[in-house]
């Protein structure tokens, strides 16, 4: 369930503990640290009653070399999969949300806009646009039945939502059909109703009905058991606004004018042949991406249809640029980011923070540092306030150099019914979930 904890970096709906704040220290690598953190979490009574019943990596199994990578449980025969939906509390009913319907899309948008992820200080809340939701929820081969809502019977008001979309994800050498679970959201007034576990079970049931038994999701809280834990980094593009709204603070011994100067970028990209991606570039970009992603332990298995959907530029949703050699016309490099604004809560002057999120980037001829600096320049041209990136893939190589600062948001990646025995370093992960 991509329960994303990012620049509004905050924990969200967690089926076990509605407001659990799963903050962990960054040095995740060692087994001692893992064990200590787990003991810490146990000692404050954080039992994961729900997740301990699920086919996910369990804390007790960490370091057990007798367990092999791969599915945890075998596929359930179709005849044994529950045919009817799980029971909801009496005054609620299931609804399948038709994302082709303008009216339903607006309902999902409003539910998320008012109830989805907030930061710890309640200053910001994710505000996925309707266009973004249409893009995120309708990739090639999507299942309408995986867009699941809960309505109040009396008023017919949409009060909760969860979604899945199909994906092919390669884990080491196996390409596995999975569901990417995302947008788990329960109305603020219903957080005590324990709807989240039922919703997770229901989306799981519907995924199983399509003969898919694995899933990928992220969360801002620690559940059993992350395959890796990533850190968010933020690069100011409009430092004055970010400071005014409380997203960032003025550094010690720094004035506003010095800060603005520090983050100033050139007016236009530096790389010859740097341009916006077009439909005709899909085959070349697919080749670049497939070749690049093959080096990571876990990464999507994209074909041209996927690349066209996920990476072809879409106004206010996703931006993609490439470098086409002026001499040979070969496409050598690629960078992309998606648009995810946040509502600014309780500020008189500003209502929206416009954030770009680094998506997939491939550098073969242009140094990654230069390519990403060009990405920052075009994001600034498009009036983004901040550029966010996780320390996945090779991102760590440019973060400090390009004046990104570490955020307080961490994002934990999970696989459902698939074991990766040894936790990955963020740099071994080639997957970005929205």
Automatic annotation (TrEMBL):
EC number assigned by the record: 2.3.1.97
Compositionally biased region (Basic and acidic residues): 20-38
UniProt keyword Acyltransferase, yes or no: yes
Keywords: Acyltransferase, Transferase
Pfam families: NMT, NMT_C
GO function terms (MF aspect): glycylpeptide N-tetradecanoyltransferase activity
Annotated spans, Disordered: 1-38, 60-83
EC top class, as a word: transferase
Protein name: Glycylpeptide N-tetradecanoyltransferase
Organism expressing this protein natively: Cucumis melo var. makuwa
Upper lineage: Eukaryota, Viridiplantae, Streptophyta, Embryophyta, Tracheophyta
């Amino acid at each position: 369930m991509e329960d994303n904890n990012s620049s509004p970096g905050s924990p969200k709906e967690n089926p076990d503990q509605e407001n659990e704040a799963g903050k962990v220290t960054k040095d995740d690598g060692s087994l001692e640290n893992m064990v200590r953190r787990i003991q810490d979490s146990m000692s404050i009574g954080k039992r994961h009653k729900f997740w301990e019943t699920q086919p996910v990596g369990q804390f007790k199994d960490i370091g057990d070399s007798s367990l092999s990578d791969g599915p945890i449980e075998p596929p359930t025969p179709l005849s044994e999969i529950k045919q009817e939906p799980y029971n909801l509390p009496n005054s609620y009913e299931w609804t399948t949300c038709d994302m082709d319907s303008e009216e339903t899309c607006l309902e999902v948008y409003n539910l998320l806009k008012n109830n989805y992820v907030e930061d710890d200080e309640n200053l910001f809340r994710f505000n996925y646009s309707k266009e973004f939701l249409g893009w995120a929820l309708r990739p090639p081969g999507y299942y309408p039945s995986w867009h699941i809502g809960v309505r109040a019977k009396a008023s017919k008001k949409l009060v909760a939502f969860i979604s899945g979309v199909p994906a092919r994800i390669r884990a080491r050498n196996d390409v596995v059909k999975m569901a990417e679970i995302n947008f788990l959201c329960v109305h603020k007034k219903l957080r005590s109703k324990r709807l989240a576990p039922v919703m997770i079970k229901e989306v799981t049931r519907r995924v199983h009905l399509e003969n898919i038994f694995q899933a990928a999701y992220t969360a801002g809280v620690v559940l059993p058991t992350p395959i890796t834990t990533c850190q968010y980094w933020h690069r100011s593009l409009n430092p004055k606004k970010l400071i005014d709204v409380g997203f960032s603070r003025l550094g010690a011994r720094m004035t506003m004018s010095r800060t603005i100067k520090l983050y100033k970028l050139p007016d236009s990209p530096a790389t010859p042949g740097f341009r916006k991606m077009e439909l005709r570039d899909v085959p070349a970009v697919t080749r670049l991406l497939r070749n690049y992603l093959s080096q990571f332990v876990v990464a999507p298995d994209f074909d041209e249809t996927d690349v066209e959907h996920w990476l072809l530029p879409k106004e206010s949703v996703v931006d993609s640029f490439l470098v086409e050699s002026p001499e040979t016309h070969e496409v050598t490099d690629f960078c992309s980011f998606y648009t995810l604004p946040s509502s600014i809560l309780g500020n008189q002057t500003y209502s929206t923070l416009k954030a770009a999120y680094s998506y997939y980037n491939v550098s073969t001829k242009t140094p990654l540092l230069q390519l990403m600096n060009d990405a920052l320049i075009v994001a600034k041209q498009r009036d983004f306030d901040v550029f966010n990136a996780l320390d996945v893939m090779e991102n760590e190589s440019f973060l400090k150099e390009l004046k990104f600062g570490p955020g307080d948001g961490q994002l934990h990646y999970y696989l459902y019914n698939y074991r990766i025995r040894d936790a990955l370093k963020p740099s071994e992960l080639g997957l970005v979930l929205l």
